[in-house]
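Show me any protein, keeping tokens residue-aligned.
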Amino acid sequence: MHTEGTPTDGGDAVAVQISRDQRDALHSEIRTYILDDGGYLGDFANALRSRGHGFDARERWAQMSIAARILDAIGWDLTSDRDTYTLPMDSQLAEFARWRLMETKACLTENAEGLAEIRAGHDPAARYVGERPAGALELERQDMLDRADNDLAVVGACLAILDQLSALES
């Protein structure tokens, strides 16, 4: 991966290169946590419907706008066959990468705790939903493993972006 300077309106921005796997991880993260009804999109709609939550709606809109800019750079289609993708970076995109890195690390910690409970023979959701049918624990374990795989890929993509930016600052 490398970085290159790109002209922007009034400032010096850089572009970072990410791999296809990193692109796919970011695309998945945006689909799942930003633009899904159960994610930021749903939070945005709920904030618009609630009195006194205009600031929350505006904050959510800002994150969704940044996510759309990323999709403009990496492609809106679910898959793509290019080997590398260029992200023109600015402070908002760098902050987005830091934010998703922090959120995703928290999700990994939560998944690790849940997997530890399952390994110990306990159901991590039992305190919320009560006794579950046979097989539900194995489905939960597999779902946690799948989320952890995706989260690790997102962490790798965000770290790659931030590492390239850090290298430019030194």
